[in-house]
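HUMAN: Would you supply a protein with fold tokens?

ASSISTANT:
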Amino acid sequence: MRIALVQQAADLDPDVNRARLADLTPPDSDLVVFPEAFARDFGEAGSDVAPYAEPVDGPFATEVARVAAERGTTVVAGMFEAGPDPERPFNTLVVRGAAAADYRKIHLYDSFGYRESDRLTAGPLEPLVVEVAGFAVGLMTCYDLRFPELARALVDRGAELLVVPAAWVAGPRKVEHWRTLVRARAIENTVFVAAVGQPGPRYSGHSLVVDPLGDVLVEAADGDEVLAATLERAVLVGHDRQWDLLCDARAANRVSSCSVFHPAQRNPSKHSEGDCPRP
């Protein structure tokens, strides 16, 4: 899979962001990922974002779909989605192209002095995995990264790549937390992780792609940048001992089947559904 991460700042004018989608979407990529809230930035902390919420068939998502079709790719981008509570929209990732889906952020950022839940509605507890270029792709948004249970739930559903659009607010140790958490989610689940953030100075930048052993394949600094990486399936297939780790973790949690981890792709000669340790 050829993946591109677009580390660009979202404007406060939705028309500007929508118009930039085509220019910022590179050619020759299977998957192009924009940051969280790219349709319109959050604004000052605690700002009311409800006036900028759109339906998932509204102007922003429609343009995402158009650009994806024009470039022959799949695009992931963040927006505020109108929901049942008119004052608190969803923080949503739209996926358009070879796959079409909408992921509503589960974990709202009620931490470090912020109260995202005052302005946004949490999404349903439904981990979302889509198929892109032969890879099962699990979706997370920003603060979701701090919750390993969601990453594991996505891997339980077959995810081989975790995509994490973010607007990771800058501050002391925030880049270190970001890099550590991205690598941890990759290592503990033996999957690829592609995490893209908005750039500095307000946000942390440092978008990166990490392989299943925690090696950083590519990483941005804190300014505007478009990263590209190629994900090789052979890296997933070759990690036999990590596959044992996942089976052991499932046994510890009294989960009885390894089938959702795609054993045929990892190493069918070593593991079958019946080989997974039972509680």
User: Anything to note?
Assistant: Helices lie at 14-24, 59-71, 148-156, 174-189, 233-237, 240-252, 263-266. Residues 174-189 form the longest helix (16 residues). The radius of gyration is 18 Å.
